[in-house]
Structure formats: structure tokens, C-alpha cells
Design a protein that fits this description.
Layout: H1 3-16, E1 25-28, H2 32-43, E2 50-53, H3 56-64, E3 78-83, E4 87-88, E5 94-95, H4 102-110, E6 112-119, E7 133-137, H5 142-151, E8 155-158, E9 169-174, H6 181-189, E10 194-197, E11 199-200, E12 207-211, E13 216-220
Parallel strand pairs: 1-2, 1-3, 3-6, 6-12
Antiparallel strand pairs: 4-5, 5-11, 7-9, 7-10, 8-9, 12-13
Helix pairs in contact: 1-2
Bound molecules: ribulose-5-phosphate (5RP).
């Protein structure tokens, strides 16, 4: 990560704070950009009720800041979910899961009114797919899922030494040029043994706060 990317991550994390309603429970993503957001959230923790974490590591960082971590099952719809992305298009379709938290991220996103994506400029792409699409897989289905992915034109690679918070494995799919992310997301969901795939197209972001040369660019859907 370059210094510029790092500065942009910090800037968009700060900018996201204005989307947090007073008295709300906030959905919080995973990764280095989300970590900057958690640090910003800590500064206004007395103004929120708590947060839903999209991973164990995020839950830990929230607790370190003495922000209450709320069980998603104990609340209804979240007003906002703030998270980073590995790639994002102008249509606000994303690849996520570089940190392996895609399943919980997708669950939190599904239960949220407004998904605010915070990203440095390097994440903006015209076509998704240069970043490999992660899929979380039930371990006994690894070979079967890999064969099915090859039929779809992808090259699956096991993420070595990595187990998800849900005790599953990750296959990273290389070599895809994703012209129709909604269709590919649905096709991957059809493969038995895949728990979740890292395409966030059917439920993309509502707002993108993107690091830019001069300040922050906001894209809204
Ligand atoms: C984790 C994610 C992250 O949002 C994504 O990997 C971006 O990470 P970072 O903010 O560190 O660049 O999907 O599963």
C-alpha cells in the first residue's frame, strides 16, 4: 500500500462519519479502510448505540475502543453499513472478500438500508475481475467447487493457510473478466458447496466515497 492510498483510506473513513445517524447501531466492515473508520467511530461512540461487526477481527477492534458489539439477530434493519472493497465500478458493483470476511459482510449488507463503500482511488475499475473473486467454500466441497468454477472459465486457487470465521476455506478465482457481475454472482450462488461469493452486484453499494487527487469524490446510486 502506498502512502497516498493510506492517506485516502483515512480521509474517506473520516468522511463516512457524517452518514452515521445519531443513536443508531452501525454496520461495520472489515479491512484496513474499515479499521480507519472504526478509529473515527470511536470518537463519536457516545452518540451511537453500538455496532454490528462483519468479522471477529472487527469485533475485537470495536471492543478495544469500548464500542458495544451488537448481535445482528437482536436488531432489525441497520440504517448504514460502512465497508471497503477490493474493486468497485462506477455502477457501485464490487468485489469484496480480500480479507476473507465476505460471508458476514454480505449478511450485514443484506440487512442494511444504505451501504456506504469507502475506498482509495486504486479500487475503482472499469471492469471487475483483475482482483480474484473470493468464494467461501465448505471444505469437503473444495474439489467439486473448483471443477465447477473451471467450467465457468475461472481459475480457482486455494487461499493457503486461511480459515474463515465460519470455519470454511476460500478459493480465489483468477482469470475472469466480469462483464455481467449480477449474472456471475447468481451463477456462483448456484454451485453447491459455495457458501458465498465475493461479488456484491445484486446488492451493491448505495454510496461510494472515493479518495481522489483533490479531496473525496462521492458517487451515489
Ligand atoms: C474484507 C474486504 C475488504 O473490504 C476489502 O478486502 C478491502 O480491504 P482494505 O480496506 O484493506 O483495502 O472485503 O473481506
Amino acid at each position: 500500500m502506498t502512502q497516498l492510498q493510506d492517506e485516502q483510506k483515512r480521509a474517506v473513513a473520516q468522511a463516512a462519519i457524517r452518514y452515521v445517524p445519531i443513536g443508531s447501531v452501525v454496520g461495520v466492515g472489515t479491512g484496513s479502510t474499515a479499521n480507519y473508520f472504526i478509529d473515527e467511530l470511536a470518537k463519536i461512540k457516545h452518540k451511537i448505540e453500538g455496532a454490528v461487526a462483519s468479522s471477529e477481527s472487527t469485533a475485537q477492534r470495536l471492543r478495544e475502543h469500548h464500542i458495544e458489539v451488537v448481535d445482528l439477530n437482536n436488531i432489525g434493519e441497520l440504517p448504514v453499513y460502512i465497508d471497503g472493497a477490493d474493486e468497485i465500478t462506477e455502477h457501485l458493483h464490487m468485489i469484496k472478500g480480500g480479507g476473507g470476511a465476505l460471508t458476514r459482510e454480505k449478511i450485514v449488507a443484506a440487512t442494511t438500508k444504505k451501504f456506504i463503500c469507502i475506498a482509495d482511488h486504486s479500487k475503482l475499475v472499469r471492469v471487475l475481475g483483475k482482483f480474484p473473486v473470493p468464494v467461501e467454500v465448505i471444505p469437503m466441497a473444495r474439489s467439486y467447487v473448483a471443477r465447477e468454477i473451471v467450467k465457468l472459465g475461472g481459475h480457482p486457487v486455494l487461499r493457503q493457510g486461511f480459515i474463515t470465521d465460519n470455519k470454511n476455506i476460500i478459493l480465489d478465482i483468477h482469470g475472469l473478466q466480469i462483464l455481467n457481475p449480477t449474472e456471475l454472482e447468481a451463477n456462483l450462488n448456484q454451485i453447491t458447496g459455495i457458501v458465498t461469493n465475493g461479488l456484491f452486484a445484486r446488492r451493491g453499494a448505495n454510496v461510494l466515497l472515493l479518495g481522489a487527487d483533490k479531496g473525496i469524490r462521492t458517487v451515489e446510486m
